[in-house]
């Protein structure tokens, strides 16, 4: 679904870079299915992990890693425990 905003009626339609960087901070997280092969760069300090595993990663709105889970439901439970609204990425 695409939403269009008519900026002619919005008083202050421009968001600063800083405001955009902090949008959703502390309240929104995104859920992403990832291969264990792709996790090394996203999760610093990650211990040795079996190659080729499909895992669910939860990231803060700013991209900071929060948790890894082997099942989607477990990742969602972690988000709920932290009062985070989740969105999925493709």
Observed structural traits:
27% strand, 2 helices, 90 residues, alpha+beta
Describe this structure in words.
This is DUF1150 family protein. InterPro entries: DUF1150. The chain is an alpha+beta fold. Helix content is 17%, strand content 27%. The protein contains two helices and four strands, in the order H-E-E-E-H-E. The protein has a four-stranded mixed beta sheet, with helices on one face. A hairpin with a 4-residue loop joins strand 2 (54-60) and strand 3. The longest helix is centred in the C-terminal third of the chain and has 10 residues, at 72-81.
Radius of gyration: 16 Å
**Proportion in β-strands:** 25-35%
Order of helices and strands: HEEEHE
**Terminus-to-terminus distance:** 15 Å
| Main β-sheet, spatial strand arrangement | 3-2-1-4
Taking the sheet with the most strands, its summary is:
4 strands, mixed
Low-confidence stretches: none
Taking all residues together, what is the mean pLDDT? 78
Number of helices: 2
The number of distinct β-strands equals: 4
Helix content: 10-25%
- The oligomerization state is single chain
Pfam families: DUF1150 (PF06620)
Protein name: DUF1150 family protein
């Amino acid at each position: 679904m695409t939403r269009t905003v008519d900026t002619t009626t919005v008083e202050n339609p421009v968001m600063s870079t800083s405001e955009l960087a902090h949008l959703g901070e502390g309240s929104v997280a995104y859920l992403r299915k990832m291969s264990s092969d792709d996790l090394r760069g996203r999760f610093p300090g990650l211990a040795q992990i079996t190659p080729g595993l499909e895992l669910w990663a939860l990231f803060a709105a700013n991209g900071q890693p929060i948790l890894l889970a082997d099942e989607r439901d477990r990742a969602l439970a972690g988000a709920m425990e932290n009062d985070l609204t989740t969105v999925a990425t493709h």
